[in-house]
Specification:
It is a single chain. By secondary structure, this protein is an alpha/beta fold. The chain contains 15 helices and ten strands. The strands form three sheets. Strands 4, 7, 8, 9 and 10 form a five-stranded mixed β-sheet that branches. Helix 2 links the parallel strand 1 and strand 2. The radius of gyration is 23 Å and the shape is globular. The N and C termini lie far apart (81 Å). The model has no long low-confidence stretch (mean pLDDT 93). The structure holds pentane-1,5-diamine. Pentane-1,5-diamine (N2P) binds next to helix 8 and strand 9.
Length: 355
């Protein structure tokens, strides 16, 4: 008898665990491949609850890394990815993205019309704008009280006031150097490219050079005192300055007087995404005005969602680091995809890094 009870119990346990396993398999998964420090974990939790799914996140810290991983199998691994405006045309050319099904994205109506017909993806056929921002210098006020807001502080061997990091991002670095030299951003002129290559090689030979650092590394190393100046995206700078009283007191972010870059990060669905249905639901969710504002408030980048404005932290909306003034906007330029000529920039960058 005892034996029978034991057997029955064992059979019951087995059935229960099998049911649990099948159930676990039924939980849908959404694989999100995003920039580091670019999401509010609460948004993920709420989406998981509402859509009864698991969101699996993976992160990148440079466009180059992201692109490499996508092409090495990532295309069928991820449901969502976030290329920046300058990379979107390459993504489309290489067929890395699927067309968005607008019937599943009713909330796209909240998009600010200023972002709805971009040159990088006319009519938002493949991508929806995620957040936008600028790039500037994060520096240590405590170490460099007389800091001047110029790209020369990192690019010009004669003007570097302290230890500095360069950003490990091809287009950001080369376009910034063109801006500093007063040349046209996106230039493919051989002479211009040679001049910026020379300047960058000279800059990195400086005794103050503390290395190349991808995205979020720069802000963390400036905070840790590894370097006194870093090239950092605006929201990342604000995030690290808010991390502690120390940081707030000791650091500042500036847009250099020569001008800078204005970029738009997007969100799109890889061509072979396992779950495009849920991916569309996620994009649509992100476009709910309150959710879009929650995201912007958390990461401190600017939202392209017009209806989100009323839910933004008022101090953020009034902060020119996040929403640059008209005067500052006049000096912000847009990096463009250069088609075949992209390789010129890649060659210059490889040369700069290897010298
Ligand atoms: C967020 C990185 C923003 C990406 N940590 C800049 N395009």
């Amino acid at each position: 008898m005892k034996q029978l009870v034991r057997l029955t119990l064992a059979a019951l346990a087995l059935t229960a665990s099998l049911t649990a396993a099948t159930h676990a398999e039924e939980v849908k998964k959404l694989h999100l491949y995003n920039w580091a420090d670019y999401m509010d974990p609460e948004i993920i939790k709420n989406f998981e609850t509402e859509y009864k799914c698991d969101v699996v996140e993976d992160f990148y810290d440079s466009a180059e890394d992201m692109m490499a991983k996508l092409q090495a199998g990532g295309l069928s691994q991820y449901d969502l990815v976030g290329p920046s405006n300058v990379n979107v045309p390459s993504f489309i050319r290489l067929k890395l993205l699927m067309e968005l099904d607008k019937s599943k994205l009713p909330n796209l109506r909240h998009l600010d019309p200023a972002f709805s017909d971009s040159a990088y993806d006319p009519g938002n056929k493949y991508t929806a704008p995620y957040l936008w921002g600028t790039i500037g210098l994060l520096y240590r006020k405590d170490k460099l009280p007389d800091f001047k807001p110029t790209w020369g502080a990192v690019l010009d061997a004669d003007k570097q006031p302290g230890t500095f990091l360069l950003l490990d991002s091809v287009r950001d670095m080369l376009d910034i150097t063109l801006i500093y030299q007063g040349k046209a951003i996106n230039s493919t002129d051989k002479g211009d490219l040679k001049a910026i290559a020379d300047m960058l090689v000279k800059a990195k030979k400086s005794k103050n050079f503390a290395g190349f650092e991808p995205g979020v590394g720069g802000k963390n190393k400036v905070a840790a005192g590894v370097a006194s100046i870093g090239i950092v995206w605006n929201g990342d700078a604000l995030q690290v300055m808010k991390e502690s009283e120390e940081n707030t007191k000791n650091m500042a972010f500036v847009l250099p007087k020569e001008g800078s870059i204005k970029w738009v990060d997007t969100i799109g669905i890889p061509a072979k995404a396992p779950n495009p249905e849920l991916a569309h639901a996620f994009i649509n969710y992100l476009y709910e005005p309150k959710v879009a504002a929650q995201l912007a408030n958390f990461v401190q980048y600017a939202t392209p969602n017009a209806a989100a404005k009323e839910f933004l932290t008022p101090e953020d909306l009034a902060n020119p680091v996040i929403y640059p003034t008209e005067e500052q906007q006049k000096k912000l330029h847009i990096s463009k995809d250069l088609g075949e000529q992209n390789k010129l920039y890649d060659q210059v960058w490889t040369m700069v890094k290897s010298r």
